[in-house]
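Summary of Year 1 activities. Much of the first year was spent building the evaluation harness for sequence design. The harness presents a backbone, in tokenized form, and records the residue chosen at every position. We chose the following record to illustrate the format because it has been used consistently in internal testing since the harness was completed.
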């Protein structure tokens, strides 16, 4: 099944009289079970594309089908609902809420989605165990390592059981060993069927993905399988 189908996507940013065309006609299909690296120079349009795929922003032109549904014509509320159901986000800067403990951070999207308290707690503990942090649920984010913080962010993204996980430079703030742990976790999730799209500058990180899409000046420059795909090894620290 095709999860993401983009056709002729253009994005023009307007500020006053200034216009900038950040995406110049992107067509891209991502199928269920794929793990894709999105690479390209700074300013090439990677984050812009991820925001469109993640329904955080709208294209200026073009069509987007998400899991078969045309999402370009939805209202803001409908888009927010689809986003909450289908998409999990992981960012470079973790974006955890500092006053909430680990368990509460993971519960946040489920609170928005109206999941009852008991089920929320149970699902949060489940995903925390999955990312190897079952014993840290009472900690505040400030009491975790960088890699652990990112795993909390991954658990939070997973709590809503998304069909796609979008990660924009998820390892940008991590040392290489910790980055490898996060990529191993993504591979595990991908093996279980979650579609994963990772923006990265680093070849080492892209190498964990089965497909590499390169973008330059708002256009796809190359797109193909990664024959040298790395399999992550080792346990979570
Ligand atoms: N809100 C905005 N208004 C105007 N221009 C923008 C806006 N957001 C991004 N741009 C421009 O669009 C282009 C693409 O930006 P984008 O953030 O998608 O790049 P990127 O590939 O993610 O870069 P990086 O690797 O540095 O994160 C850049 O030239 C940027 O200046
Ligand atoms: Mg970016």
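For this record, the design step produced the sequence shown next.
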């Amino acid at each position: 099944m095709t999860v993401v189908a983009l056709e002729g996507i253009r994005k023009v940013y307007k500020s006053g009289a200034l216009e900038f065309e950040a995406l110049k006609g992107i067509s891209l299909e991502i199928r269920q079970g794929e793990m894709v690296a999105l690479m390209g120079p700074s300013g090439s349009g990677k984050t812009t594309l991820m925001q469109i795929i993640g329904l955080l922003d709208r294209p200026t032109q073009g069509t987007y089908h998400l899991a078969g549904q045309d999402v370009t014509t939805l209202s803001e509320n409908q888009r927010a609902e689809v986003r909450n159901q289908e998409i999990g986000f992981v960012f470079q800067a973790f974006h955890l809420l500092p006053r909430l403990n680990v368990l509460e951070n993971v519960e946040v999207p489920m609170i928005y989605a109206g999941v009852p308290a008991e089920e929320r707690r149970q699902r949060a503990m489940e995903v925390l165990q999955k990312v190897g942090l079952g014993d840290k649920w009472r900690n505040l984010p400030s009491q975790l390592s960088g890699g652990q913080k990112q795993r909390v962010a991954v658990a939070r993204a997973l709590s809503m059981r998304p069909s796609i996980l979008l990660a924009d430079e998820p390892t940008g703030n991590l040392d290489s060993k910790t980055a490898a742990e996060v990529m191993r976790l993504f591979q595990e999730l991908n093996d279980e069927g979650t579609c994963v799209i990772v923006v990265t500058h680093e070849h080492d990180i892209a190498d964990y993905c089965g497909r590499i899409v390169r973008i330059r000046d708002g256009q796809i420059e190359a797109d193909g399988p990664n024959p040298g795909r790395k399999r992550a090894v080792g346990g979570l620290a």
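The mean pLDDT is 93. Quantitative recovery figures across the full test set are reported in Table 2.
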